[in-house]
Design a protein that fits this description.
Helix content is 22%, strand content 33%. By secondary structure, the chain is α+β, with helices and mostly antiparallel strands.
Length: 141
């Protein structure tokens, strides 16, 4: 939910740039996505889309009320075995799982990962084109 008084305006006709994955992942607030203002948010943040059809933004860190920001630590093709290993190497036990454009069942994935660590992290599942990817991130801000 956006804080009272936060406004982002536009006509929804803008097109956000698409580019390489940056240092931060932005998960826009659902109100921004519903209002078709993702491109306006991208301009505000100096960010870009990773895929033209997925509403995740990436770029440098900019504090915003319109999206939750996650520091990206690793980007890899989706593989349960490699993902489990990478999360265990980081001692992750508490994991926030985000997904856009992914058919993965989040609760099943959580069971399959069998995490037991003491650290907290975030995982974003998405795709670039037809390639499923996993972004291992720090806790959101």
């Amino acid at each position: 939910m956006l804080p009272a008084g936060a406004t982002l305006t536009g006509d929804g006709a803008q097109v956000a740039p698409v580019g390489e994955i940056g240092d931060w992942l932005y998960d826009p607030d659902s109100a921004v996505v519903r209002a078709h203002l993702v491109a306006e948010l991208a301009a505000l943040l100096g960010a870009r889309l990773m895929d033209p059809h997925i509403a995740y933004l990436t770029g440098p860190f900019v504090e915003t009320a319109f999206a939750r920001a996650y520091p990206i630590e690793e980007v890899a093709p989706f593989s349960l075995k490699k993902l489990r290993s990478a999360l265990r190497a980081r001692d992750i036990g508490r994991l926030t799982i985000l997904k856009r454009g992914s058919a993965v069942d989040v609760e099943q994935l959580r069971r399959d990962l069998r995490l037991t660590g003491s650290a907290e992290g975030s995982l974003a599942l998405t795709r670039i084109g037809s390639r499923p990817i996993a972004l291992i991130c720090g806790p959101g801000q």
